[in-house]
Structures
1.
Amino acid sequence: MSRARSFDTVSLVAGIVVIALGGLLLLDRLDVIDIGFGYLFPLLTGAAGAILLAGGLAARPER
Amino acid sequence: MTDQDPTNPQDPPPGQGEPGPGRPEPDEAPTVPHAGGPTPRKLLRSTGDRIIGGVAGGLGRYFAIDPIIVRITLVALAVFGGVGVFVYLAALLFVPPDDRPDQGPAVGGSRLATIAGAVVLGIALIAALGNGLFFFDAFPFSLVLLAVGGGVLYWLLRDRVEEGGAGRMVARLALGVALLIAAGFVAVGAFWASALGGGAVIAGLIVVIGVLLLLSAFRGGRARWLAVPALVLAVPVGIVSAADIKLDGGYGEREFRPTTPAQLAPSYRLGAGAMQIDMRAMKFPPGERRLNVGMGMGQVVLVVPEDVCVTADARVGAGYVNVLDRENGGVDVDLRDDRPSTAAAPRLRVSADMGMGALLVVNRPPPEDFGRGPGRSGPQYGPQMKGGPGAGGPKARDFEDGDFDDEHQELENDPPLTTARGEAACDRTLASVDAASSGTRR
């Protein structure tokens, strides 16, 4: 199996995005930062959009 | 071998494959697979993947990206400045059509995910530009935008929908609904757990899921699905964080009627529900009295005597604040009314910290069904406060045009919640203090 098939870029992007998202939420819950709704919506939709876009752009065989 | 499919899984994306037989060296000009061997890549309008003139299909094939990305970009450029129209027309005029047979899309990624990702990112961009108020200040517009997006999505995918059998579609739909219900339960559980103080634990769990995703990237991405529960958990935790909801003060309905200053506690807190503090029977002594109010989710009503000047420092994550007709609403609401203080006049300084809900400071208690329209469970505040700044504003017109006509008529017959004396209490108090000072000076 080639190296390109054993490494999944989508999971990499999703992992980085989820870690960043969870980290920010953790910092907020620990009162280090304060996330308001003004930041929350772009944060959540941006995270979901980045993961979806990475999944969509990743080359996979057509069904 | 006939025309080689560029989406063949054996073919890595351009620039990522190992050089070998039939493949160009990295320093060679990029080519696209074609019958008869590699040919120089050339920009052509697609005749097999076209909606209007095949420009987006050709550009997608040329750059080896999904044409949907090109289409969304062109539409965005057309809407914001009109450049997309000129680019498209120029390509239509100057780019020749691709007459080769058997043209497929340049890449075989999930088109649905690509479209959804692009749309969601677009919404995120708009939300960021609007400082997060997109869904609240322009809710009808966002609905129209989402409806248009859904229509475009269906139009682009209609062939796939029609290709599948009805039974298969129903089965998939049922599975999707079941997964949505399960996600809903998880989200609600995460919301309550986070509001009860477990938010840090859930946020830590999200980080762990992210690490697992990262590790799975090196093992073929078998755990991609973990991204879904991570986002399902992140949404409620994010809402609790943004609104700063704390449900550690109990729940239910609370009513307090202090009649003496000693009976008025310095602080009141409720996790969720409704709380009313009626101070009309209480004689406020001259000087400032502080009152701290905390509410996770719900409604707080403070009924104050008419001769008391009220100043406020209220923060509401999402909801509405009305302090004697000085009002504010939406998300991340801050209402600060810090008037000059004097020790000679009765003054109540309210500090409120609320997650989601409404804070009302009035001179008479509202009716029990105040703020709830027919068949509505959630509060609808704002225009009911007659005589205040919101009475004749846009909110009042929206209210009359909506489903609340009956309630509005009923409220028209009720006396106002804030009296003219209450509204002028601070000014009158200060004026009397000024007059007393003048008399002393004389």
Note: The beta strands of chain B are 31-32, 39-40, 251-256, 267-278, 287-303, 309-323, 326-337, 346-362.
2.
Amino acid sequence: MDSLKLPKDTMLGASIVTVTGNSQVLVENYRGILEYTPDCIMLQGKTCRIAICGSGLCIAYYTNEDMKIEGVISEIRYL
Amino acid sequence: MIGIIRYLKGYVKIKVWGYSPERFMNLCSNRGIVLWGLAGYGGYYTMYLALSDFFAIRDIVRKTKTKVAVLERRGLPFFMQDARKRKMFFAGIALCLLFLLGMSRFVWAIEFTGNRMVTDYELYDFLVSKGVDYGTKKSALNLEELEAAIREEFSQVTWTSARLDGTKVTVQIKENDLPTQEEREESQEKYADGAELVAAKAGVVEEILTRSGVPMVKRGDEVEKGMVLVSGLVPVNNDDGTVREWDRTVADADILIRCSEPVHLTQPLAYQYKNYTGREKTYHFFSLGEKRYSFPFGACRYVKYDEVIEQKRFRLFGQIDLPVFSGTIRCREYLPVDALYDEESAALLLQKRLEKIIASLEEKGVQIIQKDVTIGKKENALVMQGELTVCEEAVILQPVSQEMEEATEENNP
């Protein structure tokens, strides 16, 4: 896999989580939202679940490919 | 950019609640329905979606057993819907814009700068005669021609620039401080037979410095008014000392004459002053052209009053001067009161008037050497009498006088 130099996210279907400071998270390659409250957003990825917790969380935008979450983020957990 | 597109297409803010709002969101994204601005409030969610997508979520709502309520409608489609109900309002805006567009094709302000000798009125009248006035079409203006015409009409104008800023015509002018060609020609013609300097006042010559001509007096000489100080006839001598001929020249010299300036000032002791009663009435007005409308209606009913007018000109975009003024008129009632000055304050007033006279003399380049004034009382007034000893260039240039001609003829048979 490494020798082919193919991007891992397309091959494994892994989610890409880009965190900017503690105020913004950009999630790509996910399947859907499982739970959405101002304190915790649970996302279903292809291989695992991602829980983004904090306070005042809000989804700035939401498309089939990616979503942007804004708020004060305190932890990101993979379940 | 995205915001503009969303606005043009129209979007709604919806509230989603019920059995499984998360599934609702997942299904939306699966079907390519873009959601943004999602916010969770525990029991329900709010989010934005495009107006076209709003009609596509019906079956998702049914499938996920959620309920949807529209909270806000935004964007152009909704605005247009509103606009249909307020036709007159938008027609008014359109008319206003049209009016502005139409009116901006005319000249609404004319300004002159740099003119000192030529008054604004003269210039304005000239512009009117050239067809440039308030309300003239901008397309009818030919500024270059106008510049040339101004230079031609006013000989003292050496440089002009006419500019159009918005609806304002600015005419800039530079005037010639030196005598004009015509004036120079005139003086040359007038003084072709020579010119002499004569005393304008009687006094004592304090200083004389001759540049051309023959000085007839020297420092310390007493002169009478009208006496020739510098002659314009210059003798050309023969070898034996006799005069062969007379050269005619225009006399030029710096001459200071010490003379006395009489002072006679009277200050009546009785005077009237305005005792303001403190009653005031303020009117608001606006004037359109020559007409003035003031509120409240009716003239001021005070017997005697001062009017203080403050007015402001309306300006559109800080550029277009409109012939519309607004402001306030304050009528201040007063009662005329007769009073008497005491001698001390009357003397002080006289002193101040004298100082003013001295200042205005000094402004003209007159040196004050001495002042001898006395203040005396005369009936109901205080009188200041005396004279100022001043040093000034009291000379007049005039063509060579007949007497001088005759005098020279005697010497030159």
Note: Chain B has eleven helices and 22 strands.
3.
Amino acid sequence: MISIERTPWREMVNHAQATYPNECCGAMIGTIDGENKNVVHAVALDNAHEGSQAARYVLRPEDLLRADREARERKMDLIGIYHSHPDCDAYFSETDLKNSCPWYSFVVLSIQQGRFHHANSWLPNAEQTHADKEELQWPES
Amino acid sequence: MARILIPTPLRQFADKKDTVEANGATVGEVLADLTTQYPNLRKQLYSDEGKLRSFVNVYLNDDDIRYLNKDATPVAAADTLSIVPSIAGGRKGI
């Protein structure tokens, strides 16, 4: 299960709404206790996709490296990645799957008409062929 | 010995360490030593064909080794290697 605390959740939703109708992306930092992950900090990252960002996002690995360093400095862990789906459900698309990595939780925020609608978390496999849904809790959920 | 930063989800395959040291004069040799020390890491980093998985990037300090000399990039004892995934996506099909 992954839980997101109030402050990072607000930042993630604000980020996703501010970038609408484009997709946003970022990293989630926090703690892990067995199967339970707790997100304490959200790190907004640039969508580096060249071209329309209405339906695509790309994370620069060097940005992710910086987020990992920030997590280490905070004595925490890089837990996952978030991105938004503007005017679309929070499913894990074929594009998400084929460009994923099995090491992190992937939280998808559905933004409908510019406002947060719902969210899901996904755990893709190493072969990038399947993603399991992960229980997700946020403050208003 | 070079230092290798292990991403959180892979620490379970490296005796729960966040940083490990490995020997080698090149990136390829250091990674080979890493996966010899921690064989369970190999499946996480390499495909069955023995190639680095498509989503795995290796950084030597702040530089992506793809833009250096890839596996043959020289490594000094003071260097740090980081394992960083490629991540992208989007709501529409590819």
Note: Chain B touches chain A at residues 5, 7-10, 18, 43-44, 53-57, 59, 62, 64, 82, 84-94 (CB under 8 Å).
